[in-house]
What we know:
By secondary structure, this protein is mainly α. The protein has a single domain (about 1-115), classed as Ankyrin repeat-containing domain (Serine Threonine Protein Phosphatase 5, Tetratricopeptide repeat). Helices cover about 50% and strands about 0% of the residues. The chain has helices spanning about 1-5, 20-30, 35-45, 65-75, 90-95, 100-110, 120-125, 135-150. Helix 2 runs antiparallel to helix 3 (about 35-45), helix 3 runs parallel beside helix 4 (about 65-75) and helix 4 (about 65-75) packs parallel to helix 6. InterPro entries: Ankyrin_rpt, Ankyrin_rpt-contain_sf. Keywords: ANK repeat, Repeat.
Amino acid sequence: xxxxxxxxxxxxxxxxxxxxxxxxxxxxxxxxxxxxxxxxxxxxxxxxxxxxxxxxxxxxxxxxxxxxxxxxxxxxxxxxxxxxxxxxxxxxxxxxxxxxxxxxxxxxxxxxxxxxxxxxxxxxxxxxxxxxxxxxxxxxxxxxxxxxxxxxxxxxxx
Length: 158
């Protein structure tokens, strides 16, 4: 892939029949070496914003690892708020895929960095239609408590 990108950088913009860009494909198939993800984003940073045609998902919805999530969020942090055609943000999709704690923490921290996500309704929307485990339910109850006890509602970075 790296060799092809050097010779034909526009190859990063090609989509297959499912609307997957090469960035989607390497991530979706679980073979996403960080150097390949970084090279694809360097050639075409807008690839992080592309949605596939099968589910309306960005590459972040499929990110397999903390490192890949970090690269995608650096390219387009707003991806944490992008809903797929089922109404799910990457945090919901990747929770169901049982992503690592570090990856989920990064997504949640980034998601909470947006003031509109620090409301009771936004936090409740994360639970919509999902059978979460007890530990995740406890996490959400802590989020509600933090929201309700902090009138200023600062982000994790404030």
